[in-house]
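In this supplementary section we document a worked example of the pipeline. Step one takes a protein sequence of length 81 as its only input; no multiple sequence alignment statistics are reported here. Step two produces a three-dimensional model, which step three serialises into structure tokens for compact storage. The input and output of this example are shown verbatim.
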Amino acid sequence: MKSKALIILRDLWKKDMEEDELTASQREVKAAAQLIRAEISEHEYNTNHYPSLNDIHDLEVEFQSVVPPLLQSLLTELVSC
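The serialised model returned by step three reads:
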């Protein structure tokens, strides 16, 4: 009886730990999204000039000048996986 109780308690503990990890990961993702959203809102954009075809072809330069740094980091991490 005692060993069954220990197994049940251990299983419940493991389940709680897994849920806590998932919740912690979800909180981290939500916090990252909020930071990126705030950075996008604060970023200054040139709305007086539409990029030319040559500007668009030079994607790396255009990417760095238009996309905020935190979003660049996220996209780089996602693509490099």
